[in-house]
């Protein structure tokens, strides 16, 4: 019998307003941070130099924003998306406070929207997930929505509630690190000469480096995040799919693009928000990921030495960014586009 | 000259009662624990959440039982099994006390049995290996037996001594974590709703998840354990074998199965013993491992809140567990069975 | 536009005497040390047993010499060798003091030599790189020289200055760990019975173990070192090269050989210097690395219990060392030789 195997929730199991606690709280270690560098090639000194982090005013070195996000997110998979037909989107991802080695993250999700599809066979579930540290302080919060199968087709459709989601996290809602001392040596530690004032809306950065994904590294990363979605790990299962291969977890692609875009965005020290994102095409082992950035907006902040840039991160596979002009046409995405992510970074201002 | 290369012990080099100290003491770090999660996908909160471990009464978070075992075991390879024709079995594996980050493990082995084979070309050696921490307290103890070549065929046969080994570690011999506070929040942290009373002898759990092994990840794991058996690492050497491929270390398969069996055994927090095991067929990179569990026995313990389950862990390759009915027939093991392990876990009882 | 992408320095951008600070200071963690063991199979107890390190007189366990070197070296790549036509050589690599978990390494390079080639299209740049810890104490120093493209062919040739480099780091210049207590238990911890007096000049050690490199593990290692040279990571880019494959970073081969040569050099606890080295042929994923050692010289030291051995480390691919007699002929290197490294180790003396 397999009655003790948790089959996960089906559409009719989600109730509006319900809060679902997720299993496997996770204490972050320096092993996680070293693995993250090895898996992505990240070179942001804020996450690999303790003296640099201290010089900015941090009490200790914070871990990479995306490492925290992937670990927090991974916890939601068994309860939210194990029976998902599709991961439809995410929005309003807020990096509320830094995460440090030694912190323990625990994630829960509140059901904030439900809409049964007209077929009656599945529906869309919106959840707001929040990850708190050991002091119960929220460190990350995000909304995602997934299409989930019904198991019992006779179950009544719930009242349709579609949450009102912001197109992007407004500048006033960004949580700034405090005190954050901008100083002259930042450019030495990052190797980057460009600051907030140097970027302009509409500007495109074609980051030249590429990163080829292999089966071991994408599965190591996804396991590190304790994301247990089977399609990333089970090659035998995936043989029966059209592509016949394990799918690379979208978070692996996001992290690859973040690391690749270090060249040209060296001083974009922190991610403050992810406003939305689309995994336009799947990635598989063997694909080489490239990245292009477009500056969407440029905001001052209530901090004299920091500004924000709203950026569009375009992930490409197997084509360098200087060979791609149109990301999207009326036909949809360019077939080599794997990621279209709208996010906001904090970046020091010049002349302070 | 290669006279300084340690060729390892041959059958005639083992003397009954001799204690062999093994090289390379190892201090456990949080890097080891992070890598273990990345390599296996382990989600047991006892080994990844410090607050959870403390809530149970542990002084700090213990490392995964199998991580400790593989590291302790790896040390014995250069002295015991480098000239082995075959690893014949192991028994009486006792997890005596938890291992923590910062502990240093040192392993030694006592020769407890010898039997020259009738061919006169090799013989069987039984050793009891013990791993102690920096305070010289035993943390792990196990018996294994290997068939080893003779180098000098003229060496006299030793007196045959075959040790008396228990079929399983009896409930009274299991070392319990003290104090171990069972509490209501365990199910939240593990995500599992089933406790000791919920399982019944003869019950089978067909864990649905699969894990495909790749060359990088199995060699990273085996290197992490500092197990230097060449057949796991040297593809050039292995080209001349029938399969032509590097063999996956059996411990990698055991850890994969333990992680895969989390779904359905979420509250089986600790391994107390391994009673015996067979690697029924070899595994290679590209194989997808699945796992099935059979409940062999169910014991109360001298602890009001803990029980023990004796379990059979069946590892399969390239076939999901719901497609396998007969693990073993009169012809021997099903060709897709890679592991048949008899082990004992500690699991909280309900209603405390 | 890609104007913000750092294109790296061209030949005419290097000025004699200039000191170039490199980005991305790095705090060493126990995650780095665990990954180094997993990536190489290193078994030297000095770097994996804290009690052993303390017994020798170290204040804490030092990290592997080559892990420190690769991390320090990786920082120079974006500024020095990103436009290199060829990495021509390195010399005078000094391991000045041990590096510990918690140390932060920062590297800078001084331009100590320049020579424009007769073609006028490129030139050779010599730099002395120094890595300091958080107390600004030098821990590593080395010279390398690279051939770099000119971007502006009209730029005037600099005055030719070729630095005077030692053929090897002399015994009197080796920095010894202090106090370094040699004791009887070293052989137990290393598993090696041979000490300084047991080796003789001209002796060859044919280390039997082989290590097959895979794409994930070599890219994980190179990313861990934050070496961002594209030819190691970008398979799409490398498809247009004659071999069509990502190149394995030379440091990965050096570390593989160091770990493989543990069998026979168990007591060669520390690397004191690298005198020079050649990557005779490239390595690719799928290659199996083997190693052979030749004893070049044998020095007493101003320490009663330590001696030095100057060694030649020959790295081979896809051929075991007992099948190779002539490393180099008048035709050049044997086609399976990948590394010819001249280095110096510290090794305890007997009878102390």
SSE topology:
The structure is a homotrimer of 352-residue chains.
Chain A: E1 19-21, E2 26-27, H1 30-40, H2 50-55, H3 65-74, H4 77-81, E3 84-95, E4 104-116, E5 122-132, E6 138-149, H5 186-190, E7 204-212, H6 215-224, H7 235-238, H8 250-260, E8 270-278, E9 288-300, E10 306-317, E11 328-329, E12 332-333, E13 337-348
Helix pairs in contact in A: 1-6
Task: Write a compact overview of the structure shown.
In chain A, the strands form two sheets. In chain A, strands 1, 2, 3, 4, 5, 6, 7, 8, 9, 10 and 13 form an eleven-stranded antiparallel sheet that branches. Chain A has a two-stranded antiparallel ribbon with strand order 11-12. Chain A is built from eight helices and 13 strands. The first copy, chain A, has helices spanning 30-40, 50-55, 65-74, 77-81, 186-190, 215-224, 235-238, 250-260; strands spanning 19-21, 26-27, 84-95, 104-116, 122-132, 138-149, 204-212, 270-278, 288-300, 306-317, 328-329, 332-333, 337-348.
Describe the protein in words.
Three copies of one chain form a homotrimer. Helices cover 18% and strands 32% of the residues of chain A. Chain A has eight helices and 13 strands. Chain A has helices spanning 30-40, 50-55, 65-74, 77-81, 186-190, 215-224, 235-238, 250-260, and strands at residues 19-21, 26-27, 84-95, 104-116, 122-132, 138-149, 204-212, 270-278, 288-300, 306-317, 328-329, 332-333, 337-348. In chain A, a hairpin with a 5-residue loop joins β9 and β10. The mean pLDDT of chain A is 96. In chain A, α1 (30-40) packs antiparallel against α6 (215-224). The radius of gyration of chain A is 20 Å and the shape is globular. With 352 residues, chain A is an alpha+beta fold. Chain A has one domain (2-348): Thiol Ester Dehydrase, Chain A. In chain A, strands 1, 2, 3, 4, 5, 6, 7, 8, 9, 10 and 13 form an eleven-stranded antiparallel sheet that branches. In chain A, strands 11-12 form a two-stranded antiparallel sheet. At the A-C interface, α1, α2, α5, β7 and α6 of A face β2, α1, α6 and α7 of C. Chains A, B, C: InterPro entries: HotDog_dom_sf, MC_hydratase, MCH/BMMD, Thiol_ester_hydratase_Rv0216. Chains A, B, C: This is MaoC family dehydratase.
């Amino acid at each position: 019998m397999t009655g003790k195997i948790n089959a996960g929730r089906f559409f009719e199991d989600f109730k509006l307003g319900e809060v679902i606690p997720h299993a496997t709280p996770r204490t972050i270690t320096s092993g996680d941070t070293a693995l993250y560098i090895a898996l992505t090639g990240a070179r942001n000194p804020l996450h690999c130099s303790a003296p640099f982090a201290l010089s900015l005013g941090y009490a200790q070195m914070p871990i990479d924003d995306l490492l925290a996000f992937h670990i927090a997110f991974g916890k939601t998979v068994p309860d939210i998306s194990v029976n998902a037909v599709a991961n439809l989107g995410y929005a309003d991802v807020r990096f509320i406070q830094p995460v440090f080695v030694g912190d323990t993250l625990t994630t829960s999700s509140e059901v904030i929207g439900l809409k049964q599809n007209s077929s009656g066979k599945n529906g869309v579930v919106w959840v707001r997930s929040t990850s708190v540290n050991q002091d119960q302080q929220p460190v990350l919060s995000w909304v995602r929505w997934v299409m989930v199968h019904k198991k019992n087709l006779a179950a009544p459709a719930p009242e349709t509630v579609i949450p009102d989601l912001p197109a992007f996290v407004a500048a006033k809602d960004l949580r700034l690190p405090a005190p954050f001392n901008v100083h002259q040596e930042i450019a030495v530690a990052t190797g980057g000469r460009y600051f907030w004032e140097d970027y302009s809306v509409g500007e495109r950065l074609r980051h030249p480096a590429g990163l080829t994904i292999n089966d071991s590294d994408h599965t190591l990363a996804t396991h590190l995040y304790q994301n247990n979605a089977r399609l990333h790990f089970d090659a035998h299962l995936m043989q029966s799919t059209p592509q016949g291969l394990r799918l690379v977890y979208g978070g692996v692609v996001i992290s690859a693009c973040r690391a690749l875009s270090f060249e040209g965005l060296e001083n974009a020290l922190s991610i403050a928000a992810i406003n939305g994102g689309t995994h336009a095409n799947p990635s598989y082992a063997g694909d080489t990921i490239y990245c292009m950035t477009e500056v969407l907006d440029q905001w001052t902040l209530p901090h004299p030495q920091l500004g924000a840039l709203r950026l569009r991160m375009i992930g490409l596979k197997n084509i360098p960014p200087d060979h791609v002009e149109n990301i999207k046409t009326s036909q949809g995405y360019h077939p080599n586009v794997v990621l279209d992510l709208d996010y906001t970074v904090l970046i020091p201002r010049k002349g302070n």
